[in-house]
Model the fold of this input.
Amino acid sequence: MLSKGLIDIKNSIQTANNEGLAKKPSKEVSDGVARVDINVLKSKLQKTQNKEFKKNLIFISLLILGMISLAIFLSF
Done:
């Protein structure tokens, strides 16, 4: 008899109508932070890497030139 009473119980769970909360607003609310384009960041990074590479290339070439001139000087 107890099982019959459990079968007759109907689940009447009502869900709240939260469609207004689920939809995104058409304009995003910004906190005053401007968005940055990834391509701009990449180009800035590429420029700094190019400058660093040129500086390292000049340093290494001067070092090699100095070693060659020292080797020539010591060989005579």
In short: The chain has a mean pLDDT of 80. Residues 4 and 10 are 12 Å apart (CA to CA). The helical segments are 2-8, 19-22, 38-75.
